[in-house]
Amino acid sequence: MLDPSLTEKIKASVDAGFAEQIAYTQELVRFASTRGSEHAIQDFVFKTFRSRGLTMERFELDRETLERHPGAGRFSEGHSTAPIVVGIHRPRAEVGRSLILQAHVDVVPPGPLDMWTHPPFDPVIEGDWLFGRGGCDMKAGHAANLYALDALRRIGLQPGATVYVQSVVEEESTGNGALMTHLRGYRADAALIPEPENEKLARANVGVLWFQVEVRGRPTHVSVMGAGANAIDAAYRVVGALRALETEWNARKAGRPHFESEPHPINLNVGKIEGGDWASSVPAWCRVDFRVSIYPGIDALSASREIEQTIAAFARDDAFLSNDPPRLTFNGFFSEGYELSPGTDAERALGQAHLLAFGKPLETVVTPAYLDARVYALFDKIPALCYGPSGRDSHSYDERVSMASVKQITRTIALFVADWCGVEAASL
Amino acid sequence: MLDPSLTEKIKASVDAGFAEQIAYTQELVRFASTRGSEHAIQDFVFKTFRSRGLTMERFELDRETLERHPGAGRFSEGHSTAPIVVGIHRPRAEVGRSLILQAHVDVVPPGPLDMWTHPPFDPVIEGDWLFGRGGCDMKAGHAANLYALDALRRIGLQPGATVYVQSVVEEESTGNGALMTHLRGYRADAALIPEPENEKLARANVGVLWFQVEVRGRPTHVSVMGAGANAIDAAYRVVGALRALETEWNARKAGRPHFESEPHPINLNVGKIEGGDWASSVPAWCRVDFRVSIYPGIDALSASREIEQTIAAFARDDAFLSNDPPRLTFNGFFSEGYELSPGTDAERALGQAHLLAFGKPLETVVTPAYLDARVYALFDKIPALCYGPSGRDSHSYDERVSMASVKQITRTIALFVADWCGVEAASL
Fold first, then answer.
1. One-letter-per-residue 3-state SS of B53-68
2. pTM for the predicted model, two decimal places
3. Cβ contact, residue pair B284, A394, below 8 Å
């Protein structure tokens, strides 16, 4: 438990650095770091972390090592080759508990540019909102990790335990960035990831699978349409079969503590579709990209088999698809969900820090989205705290994050680090 | 009526040139003359026609002139800029009836290459089949027009009336190539177009409209899917509304002489679809390209208004679409169908030629596809004879044409030209 005067000093120090923190967050947003394009931002992060005196390591996503691990997302052409960056703080005396502070730099595509009020990679500020693709998810959190440590240093302190500040990629597509830090051997007593959780702590989250269904068929002149199978229509019939599976999976929420009160815990998203070449030819091909979630405790492999069986069974009874069965490819996330067991010291410490920063108790939330925290929960088996600022429209246009919220969250993180790791006088 | 010895001479002359005709057809197939890529083949055709002593004209598709005409297809980015090529035969004495021999060089996209037994633009011969994209639709007919005239020349004859040998583009997308020849002022007493009609004469055919529906919506993180409208799903709901219109239009076949016995005269084709950027984002946009047919006598404008009203009415009652109504663009064919009135001299002459070539009477057919013949029927108001060889899988992979059929069709055309135009001694 922090003493009140240190608490106030830390909060004030966060405030003192906040203008610089926002400017740095804007720097991060200016990098259009969509999947595969995170090289430049990771080099920028590397230099920034090193300028803070952190010991640096940088390493590749090793495909062979990853593919031997059951939690790895499936590789595809689009997989990033950008490196993972880790800044290491080692205290003079290892008195406290060690910590991983993690954030990802990859962002989802901006979509049609004309739907944005401001260009997506131009971090415009309006009132309390900082706009921009990836600002909320999660460059604000990425900056908060660093500026929480800065706040301690500003008052002559540093963590009294090892802290790994990890900057990863592939969080939006496979989760292989976070998994690679685990496979590299980094371990700590807890992990904190400031994803935009609206100032709440993720109590449980779903696993996620990505897959693509491709339908091929015989195109033909539209004048003899009956003879030609329309691959687009056929693909949409497969969508219907998968929607039925989604309904079934949602019904299985019964008896699941964190999910049975959610109205629709399992979401199947038809995220992308492409098919056909020509208005006047019956389309010969159609590809649909899906994302689906699974309850924690369900492993990705068994879920993938159920998807496979659903498609195969539907195709068997479909006049066209039975001749040309759809091709199913798992091409990204292949991950299990996790639950954060209540009652850990780490959660208690975060709750106290949150109370000191916000003046109200920490609430928890169940998230129906993938979280990198699963790596630390499932494979490191440590308390994995996913907790971060409020924002709007992540993955949409006009994504934005509340700067007031970011400031409070940064205070929480700084207070949590001081408590969890302890503090010692900062090195020169 | 041709005398029997001339008939036999003409048939034998077609046969004598047939090996060369097939080699020439193969030359045409080697040009990958998809929309916009017909420049090279039109230059090849220009040189070939000129080598036969035809007087040549070559002209552009004039957008302004076309757009003033109600039968023009709508321009879009993909519209071809390749020229129209016309070879003109003028007799010494204009004793017979003049004729337009027309064919198009544009072909539809080949689709996935791995679905072809042979590469699409490699004109492989197997038994009676000549394979290749566009071989059947309609480069075999294109060559037949030229080799029918060659057959006359080989026996020292030429048509005794003006013949325009027209090579057009945009037949597969707007019909603007054929319309441009009309707007350029070419007129004749009849027109013959050897489209692959399975050795039958088109008695009536539908009009065709192309249009694109674009849906925009608010993308969002899949974890809050309820808040985000899925543009792909929304677009497919519009497909459903248009399918209902298709059913209604098919029901209106009652009382239409050439169509009421067709099981499904009106076809709506979902030809192409594209939407979304990312499996884990609810898609913000989706575009669908449609092709629909209309009965002859229905003008394109009134059909387009019905499509517009159907989409608008559906969108009004749809929770998402009512906020962001779909954008409808007519982006290609905007054409009325036609009927070939029975009893014309031209049809009688073609029937006799067919009987001489095939030994059996000419049958007619109703086609549910666009035909350039509509330009000559609707705007020149002349007998427009669409009649050509047998083939398989036009607009599909492994498109192929029967060489035996092409030979008989070429005999018919040569006999028809000799009868319709009369003959005179060939110029040097």
1. CCEEEEECCCHHHHHC
2. 0.91
3. no
